[in-house]
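Slide 14.
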Amino acid sequence: MSTATPIAIVGAGPVGLVLALKLATLGVPSVVLESEPDISEELRASTFHPPSLDMLAELGLAAPLIAQARKDYLLRFAYVAAIVASVELGLDLALSVGRLA
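Slide 15: predicted structure.
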C-alpha cells in the first residue's frame, strides 16, 4: 500500500483523465476532482495530432479512439471565418498520412 500523498488533478476532462491513467501506470497515486456530476460528452477537441496518438497508444487508447473517429479526407484552409482554399486528399493519401489509421 502506498503512503504517498495523492496528486490532485482538477477536472475530469480528456487531459485530466489521461493524466490520472498515466500516473496510475507509473504507480503514482492521484485523485481527480470534478465539479460536474457526470463526465461531459461534448468534447471540444476535433483533432488528434501524431504525438497525442503516440502517447494514447502507449496507454492502449489510440486504436479504440481511431476506430470510433470520423475521418475527414478534405483539408481546408480558413482565414477568420471564410474558407480560402480546399484540397481533396483522397483515401490513399489520407490513410498513408495517419500513423495509426
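Speaker note: The CA atoms of residues 20 and 26 lie 10 Å apart.
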